[in-house]
Design goal:
By secondary structure, the chain is mainly beta. The chain has helices at about 95-100, 250-260; strands at about 20, 25-35, 40-50, 50-60, 70-75, 80-90, 105-115, 120-130, 140, 145, 150-155, 165-175, 180-190, 190-200, 205-220, 225-235, 265-270, 270-275, 280, 285-300, 300-305, 325-335, 345-355, 360-370, 375-385, 385-400, 405-420, 425-430, 435-440, 445-450, 455-460, 465-475. It folds into 3 domains: about 20-90 and about 160-190; about 95-155, no CATH class; about 300-475, no CATH class. The strands form 6 sheets. Strands 2, 3, 5, 13, 16, 17, 18 and 19 form an 8-stranded mixed beta sheet that branches. A 6-stranded mixed beta sheet has the order 25-22-21-28-31-30, with no helix packed on it. A 5-stranded antiparallel beta sheet has the order 10-9-8-7-11, with no helix packed on it. A hairpin with a 2-residue loop joins strand 30 and strand 31. The model is unreliable at about 1-15 and about 245-260 (pLDDT under 50).
Length: about 475
């Protein structure tokens, strides 16, 4: 006797009559992308809806759509139009999922067998019930059970709860039976952008040419053909949510020189909005770049900086290291008088300079935050090779308590700066001094840049050296 097999009931494979809309119905598409892996999509399509209640399968939406943000509007006949329910079907059709959905159902297994006379082969079709697909396939035929698929499987239809593409299924009521323009707007993950900049230093390092590019990445699982593209720069607050499942499927140098601005900029609330001047297509799993801005002959300043440490002034340290690093910075003003004056989205600025043969060489990069108009842009490009420093503590005294101060220290320092270049350089020595401090002696003038910072400017002759000495008393 063949054993009885108990099968779980299969959900109905047939689905109710529904209207389907795909990208071929699309009339307009607008995508606004934010910095933090977030985008607003507005998809307008012309769809013929029957009068009364119906289900609309809005196909080819983002696989990372946030369904709770979806809003469908009727732009043609809003009267007597309303939405009663919407479901996001993200269980996408694959051979394995199709087989999984047929557990407990009958399929046809087709296999080829050679003819007895050896001339060719013939197809044998057998009906079987899918018993299980966990870790392998179990099929029950009329006279046996097999644990592998002896041929190819033919299915009668695709189950209604499997979709070939991410689909938003909307139950709605239409007041008329005719073609109507529907706009679906929603927030989605999987779309992001960042700004990348290329700066070319002039031979005398007095000016630079700056080009900005927007790098767009689409990993949302959907394509956005001929979209009106806008970008929002700024830190938009988003409410924290519990983690959700992500429904994901599956030489600049030359062009920078000739690039022209292609994005218009405007203020939006407390942010800045950039609009591309022509439609563009964001393909699935694609990264592309579009021009953001271009400026030439921007005045630039070069700065050498030796940065001290606050702990130098609270103990005895003696020699504080051979050849301390002297940082190299360039800075420019983001203002119209400097041939800029456009709010700069945060990103990375990569700086190049041409060698004696005219070949562009990379000389450093730095990241910048969102920078409004009329602000200073300061970039650290690296550490100087030919300009070095050696710092030595020449004296230290702990003076104990004085009045309200529990600890008083007096220190003397010597900083030797060397310059192997032929031309002189000016090194800014920035010293963070803690507590209540006073410079008692100094070989070079200083400015009190902030409550706890002193800045010395030391000019070092070409192929020469200069020595900065000073004595400081600090009170805590």
């Amino acid at each position: 006797m063949r054993p009885t097999v108990l099968l779980a009931a299969l959900p109905a494979l047939l689905i109710a009559q529904e209207t389907t809309t795909t990208l071929k119905d699309q009339k307009a598409l607008a995508v606004t992308i934010y910095n933090d892996n977030l985008a607003l999509v507005k998809d307008t399509r012309e769809v013929r809806l029957p009068k009364g209640e119906t289900r609309l399968a809005f196909q080819e939406v983002s696989a990372q759509i946030r369904p709770e943000t979806a809003l469908l509007r009727n732009l043609t006949h809003p009267k007597e139009f309303w939405v009663s329910e919407q479901n996001f079907d993200f269980d996408l059709l694959t051979p394995q999922k199709l087989l999984d959905k047929y557990v407990g159902e009958k399929v046809v297994v087709v296999r080829s067998m050679p003819n007895p006379d050896g001339a060719g082969s013939k197809e044998i079709r057998e009906e079987a019930t899918v018993l299980a697909t966990n870790g392998g396939t179990v099929l029950q035929f009329a006279d046996r059970i097999e644990t592998s698929i002896p041929g190819r499987i033919v299915y009668p239809k695709v189950p209604g709860n499997l979709r070939a593409r991410p689909t938003l299924v909307i139950s709605l009521n239409s007041g008329v039976d005719k073609a109507q323009n529907l706009e679906l707007s929603y927030l989605t993950g999987g779309l992001s952008w960042r700004a990348d900049y290329v700066a070319n230093l002039s031979p005398d390092e007095q000016t630079l040419d700056l080009s900005g590019w927007v790098t767009l990445t689409n990993q949302s699982g959907a394509a956005y053909p001929n979209a009106t593209l806008q970008l929002v720069a700024g830190d938009v607050n988003r409410a924290k949510q519990r983690p959700e499942r992500a429904f994901a499927v599956g030489a600049m140098m030359d062009r920078a020189k000739a690039a022209a601005p292609q994005m218009a900029e405007e203020s939006l609330f407390e942010y800045h909005l950039y609009t591309l001047d022509h439609p563009t297509t964001l393909a699935v799993n694609q990264t592309k770049q579009v021009a953001l801005l271009s400026a030439s002959a921007v005045p630039v300043r070069k700065d050498y900086l030796l940065q001290g440490q606050a702990y130098y002034y609270s103990g005895s340290y003696g020699d504080l290291g051979e050849k301390q690093k002297v940082g190299v910075f360039v800075e420019f003003n983001n203002k119209e008088s400097s041939r800029l004056g456009m709010p700069l989205p945060k990103g990375i600025i990569r700086v190049y300079k041409r060698d004696s043969e005219g070949r562009a060489q990379f000389v450093g990069e730095d990241s910048v935050d969102h920078t409004p108009k009329n602000e200073l842009v300061r970039l650290k490009l690296g550490d100087a090779f030919d300009v070095t420093a050696r710092r030595k503590q020449t004296d230290y005294k702990s003076l104990g308590r004085q009045g309200k101060f529990g600890s008083v220290h007096e220190s003397a320092f010597e900083i030797e700066l060397k310059n192997a270049k032929k031309e002189p350089v000016t090194v800014n020595v920035l010293e963070p001094m803690p507590g209540d401090w006073e410079v008692l002696q100094n070989s070079h003038p200083f400015t009190k840049e902030a409550a706890g910072t002193a800045r010395f400017k030391v000019t070092v002759p070409g192929e020469g050296s200069a020595t900065l000495t000073y004595r400081v008393r600090v009170k805590w």
